[in-house]
Amino acid sequence: TASSQSNSCSGTDDDDVWFSFVATATAHKIELLNVTGSTSDLYHVVYGGTCGALGSSLVCSDPNNSVVSGLTIGNTYYIRVYSWTSTTGQTTSFNVCVSTIPPPPANDACSGAIPITVSTSTTSCTNTTVNTFGATTESYNSSFWSSSYDDGVWYSFVAGASGARITGSNFSPSGTIGWSVFNGSCGSLIEIAQNGLNSNAPIWGLTVGQTYYICAFYNGTGTTGTFDMCVVNTTALGEEEIDANGFSLYPNPTTGTFTLNSAENLNNATVTVFDIKGQVVYSVVNSVSNKVEIDLSANTNGIYYVQISNNDNVITKKIVKQ
After folding, report:
1. Within the chain, how many helices (H) and strands (E) appear?
2. DSSP calls for 57-84
3. Fewer CB within 10 A of the terminal residue: the chain, N end or C end?
């Protein structure tokens, strides 16, 4: 049933249950494990104080794991768990784990970046297992990711081509995984790209033989976990290669409109345009058979990359809006 204590967090606390723990450190990790039953979408809140006078919520978490910090060793804290939904009659069982956060990993800072072997094919990609448990907030704060760098870990790779694709898999827990790529040195980093590992977005404009740095993390305050990451070399096809595949480009770089003609049937091909940071600026499912029309008139001048996925073929073309 619903408890009498007020709740400023999300979800519907009409079926909440309570647990308590005594802090043995200034921060602990909270996990809801082995969730089974009529709903698996749980929510949990952590409070200090007493049952009659709870303090403000220290954590509001829809993910089934969180990190609560700023604790006083020896004090008692309360965990409130309930289902997100307001549907009555839900029955769910789960385990609650309160654990001590491990010390920061060796690659918690850029200076400890772990080298990654870059693959030449997505089918033979060498995965690196990323573990963000115990990672601390980065001194570098991305303008794109705002405050999400609270569990960033660092890797480096040497570019083997003008582009690279960073992919992720086996996320535990599930969620959005962020990354930023930097050139320069650890003491003077310059962010050149950022995206999510779930996006499969490429990075362009790399210098072959140069070392680049990746900061990877879970996007969300207090969320940590493990996932596999892969870096693959990729190259934008040149004009001759495009023509050999039946493509020809007719740009109007002043207005930012471009037409790709093809002898192939491009109906239902997925067309995606990336900027040099790997951000998607245009995406459409093509609806005509022999050409693709792209309108970048609202975008700033610069280099863009058009990726056309047609059945099993993926063609990438560099375009310039002047």
Report:
1. 1, 23
2. EEEEESSSEEEE-S--TT-EEEEEEEES
3. N
